[in-house]
Amino acid sequence: MVYKGFDVGSAKPKKETLKKYPHKLVDIITAENIYTASNFIFDAKELIDKAHHEKKIPLLVGGSMMYFQSLLKGLDKLPERNEQYREQLKIIQSQKGTFELYKELELKDPEYANSIQKNDSQRIIRALEIIQETSRTASSQLGNADNKLLKESHIMQLGIFPIERSILHKRIDKRLKELLNDGLIDETKKILDAYEIKQDHPALKAINYKQAIKYINNDYNEDELYLKALFATRQFAKRQITWMRSWADLELFDLNQEKKIIKYLKNSKEIKSFV
Predict the structure, then answer these.
(1) CA distance 127 to 125
(2) In b/e form, how buried is each residue of 62-93, taking b as 16+ CB within 10 angstroms?
(3) Beta strands per DSSP E along the chain
(4) Band of the pLDDT at 47, cuts 50, 70, 90?
């Protein structure tokens, strides 16, 4: 939601909703830039400090578990992107496939290779890039960040999702149909016309936009667009739920347990002590 113009595909709240319930970190950059986890940590910490200074409780809402984990645990100090080396890897990938890169990672860092999917090109390329830039394995450099935020703050963590998988699937299906009806294809075309951005830009690889681009390029028909986006969203939701269930100190609630959530918050020592 940080990118201007990426409204429909990201299911960004309507302007009326944002006016009634002000959000931060919405529409803050254009697609010529890339918003990273480190950008989020910097911005989020500034907003958290500002809220505390104003005697308010900062509320972080969203579905990006990786960003929240980075904020909670800190971010590893890793080298910047090396675009030239990445291009070399992408040429290998286009000629020989992602598995060729994975085999190279297995040789250089078997521990990290065993921890990821063999077709996860984004993580494979990043790991090889880290090794190239530092002459050290990625596994030896990841997971060493200092979780400074946890040491300095009282943090309450709530996870809310439909426990019944059928309800979740119905909501995903309904949401996708709404995005398509609201103009996902037209919005994607406008983005591609308005900005000169590389195909590997994270925003263009996001679910819905990735499938919409395939449709625009005549790689998918309407039915394929719908089914591919539906499957990708279901898989993403499944991974997020699995991650949430293994998340430390996270209170889990069903989507329909509104009263239970309110009661939990009202009885919370952290909130009582704050107010």
Answers:
(1) 5
(2) eeeeebbbbbbbbbbebeeeeeeebeebeeeb
(3) 158-160, 251-253
(4) very high
Query: Look-up: residue for tokens 């016309």?
Result: 193
* pTM greater than the 0.90 cutoff: no
Q: Which amino acid is at 166?
A: S
* pLDDT of 23 higher than 90: yes
**Do 141 and 114 touch, CB atoms closer than 8 A?**
no
Burial 181-213 (b: 16+ CB within 10 A, else e): eeebbebbeebbeebebeeebebbebbbbbbbb
Enter the DSSP assignment of 261: H
Give me the residue label for tokens 């201007």: 4
* Strand, helix or coil for residue 44: helix
> What pLDDT, on a 0 to 100 scale, did the predictor assign at position 257?
93
The sign of the CA dihedral 154, 47, 146, 132 is positive
95: confidence class by pLDDT, cuts 50, 70, 90: very high
Q: How far is the C-alpha of 145 from the C-alpha of 128, rounded, in Å?
A: 20
| Phi/psi at 149 (5° precision) | -60, -40
Contact 130, 78 (CB under 8 A): yes
Tokens, residue 50:
């500002």
Q: Which domains does the chain have, with CATH numbers?
A: 15-35+157-274 (3.40.50.300), 83-134 (no CATH)
Average of per-residue pLDDT across 33-61: 88
Conformational region of residue 135, where left means phi above 0, alpha means psi within -120 to 50, and beta covers everything else: left
pLDDT in tens, 176-214: 999 999 999 999 999 999 988 888 788 998 999 999 999
Query: Which residue type occupies 154?
Result: H
